């Protein structure tokens, strides 16, 4: 059940406009040689720290410059990520939701070896006030790791429509666990934590990689539906649509009796051209495993959500606004891991 990393190829027949995935599932050693030491990057649990501590910040809107300003002052009593060394290297990140891709993220500098970092930095957004008032501010704190194994330390989410804009003072706010506010509706199925990255051909050196690669790192899922008193035996399936053949299919190992399973499973798809990203869709679905049949628990689809794939109308190109924003951010940030926390839904 050593199922940490796998790789398949995504190759397109340009004449027929349909994908043909000639593929193989590789062991960790071969993936490591192809895509930059996958084994060292993806093994281990990189997000299991409990949120704690507080953050001090202030919000302001500069009417003259039409600029939203987040004054990030400091944090106190953050969780320790590296227990052996007793250290965390924290930074603060902000998003305006739900339109993450258009507004982009803002980040402070990283403060090393401290759980009480002082920033005194201003994160700025050029945005009209009337547009700002229909957004939410998501401010989160992360531990920075040089290999990209960043750990979530806590967050706070603010509805800007109800914010008191006369309050420009710095105030302290408790950091909370990952928010489920986006999925507290009737169809609540859980939340998937993942990262994705696109590596363009030749971006790491001459002919390295020889073709574009999409890396999908399924970290964990929180708050799955509990179908039995003992919990749920879950696993994740992955396809790159429109190909639904067995060669496209990849899956994680089964995590037993846990409604909050940690997978830390990575899949590398090569054979991607940059133009293919607008027509392909990564479908990730979570299933409960039983001997006779598997039960669908929820899923996400990462793509542009245009309803079209290679000029053909398809019903699976139906990504939500959040999923589209996540995919667009990956397309705009080559060779950079994009972190996401997406609600599972019916497909």
UniProtKB/TrEMBL annotation:
<dbReference type="InterPro" id="IPR035892">
    <property type="entry name" value="C2_domain_sf"/>
</dbReference>
<protein>
    <recommendedName>
        <fullName>Synaptotagmin-like protein 2</fullName>
    </recommendedName>
</protein>
<keyword id="KW-0677">Repeat</keyword>
<keyword id="KW-0268">Exocytosis</keyword>
<feature type="region of interest" description="Disordered">
    <location>
        <begin position="1"/>
        <end position="27"/>
    </location>
</feature>
<dbReference type="Pfam" id="PF00168">
    <property type="entry name" value="C2"/>
</dbReference>
<feature type="domain" description="C2">
    <location>
        <begin position="188"/>
        <end position="317"/>
    </location>
</feature>
<feature type="compositionally biased region" description="Polar residues">
    <location>
        <begin position="1"/>
        <end position="12"/>
    </location>
</feature>
<dbReference type="InterPro" id="IPR043567">
    <property type="entry name" value="SYTL1-5_C2B"/>
</dbReference>
<dbReference type="GO" id="GO:0042043">
    <property type="term" value="F:neurexin family protein binding"/>
</dbReference>
<keyword id="KW-1003">Cell membrane</keyword>
<dbReference type="GO" id="GO:0005886">
    <property type="term" value="C:plasma membrane"/>
</dbReference>
<dbReference type="GO" id="GO:0070382">
    <property type="term" value="C:exocytic vesicle"/>
</dbReference>
<dbReference type="GO" id="GO:0006887">
    <property type="term" value="P:exocytosis"/>
</dbReference>
<keyword id="KW-0472">Membrane</keyword>
<feature type="domain" description="C2">
    <location>
        <begin position="51"/>
        <end position="173"/>
    </location>
</feature>
<dbReference type="InterPro" id="IPR000008">
    <property type="entry name" value="C2_dom"/>
</dbReference>
């Amino acid at each position: 059940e050593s199922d940490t990393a796998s790789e398949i190829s995504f190759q397109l027949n340009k004449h027929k406009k349909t994908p043909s995935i000639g593929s193989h599932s590789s062991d960790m050693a071969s993936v490591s040689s192809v895509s930059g030491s996958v084994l060292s990057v993806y093994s281990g649990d990189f997000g299991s720290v409990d949120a704690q501590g507080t953050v001090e910040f202030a919000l302001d809107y500069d009417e003259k410059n039409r600029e939203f300003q987040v004054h990030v002052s400091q944090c106190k009593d953050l969780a320790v990520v590296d227990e052996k060394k007793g250290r965390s290297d924290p930074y603060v990140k902000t998003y305006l939701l739900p339109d993450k891709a258009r507004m982009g993220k803002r980040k402070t500098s990283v403060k090393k070896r401290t759980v009480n970092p002082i920033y005194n930095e201003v994160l700025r957004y050029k945005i009209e006030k009337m547009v700002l008032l229909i957004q939410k501010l998501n401010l989160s704190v992360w531990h920075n790791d040089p290999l990209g194994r960043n750990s979530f330390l806590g967050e706070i989410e603010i509805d800007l429509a109800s914010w008191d804009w006369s309050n420009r003072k710095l105030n302290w706010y408790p950091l909370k666990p990952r928010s489920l506010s986006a999925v507290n509706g009737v169809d609540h199925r859980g939340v998937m934590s993942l990262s994705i990255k696109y590596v363009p051909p030749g971006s790491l050196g001459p002919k390295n990689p020889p073709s574009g690669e999409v890396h999908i790192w399924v970290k964990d899922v929180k708050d799955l539906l509990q179908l039995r008193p003992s919990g749920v035996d879950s696993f994740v399936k992955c396809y790159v649509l429109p190909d639904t053949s067995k060669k496209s299919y990849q899956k994680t190992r089964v995590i037993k009796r846990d409604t909050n399973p940690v997978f830390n499973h990575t899949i590398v798809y090569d054979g991607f051209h940059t133009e293919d990203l607008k027509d392909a869709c990564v479908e990730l679905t979570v299933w409960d495993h039983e001997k006779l049949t598997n039960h669908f628990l929820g899923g996400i689809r990462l793509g542009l959500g245009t309803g079209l794939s290679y000029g053909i109308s398809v019903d699976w190109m139906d990504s939500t606004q959040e999923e589209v924003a996540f995919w667009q951010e990956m397309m705009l940030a080559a060779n950079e891991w994009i972190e996401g926390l997406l609600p599972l839904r019916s497909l």
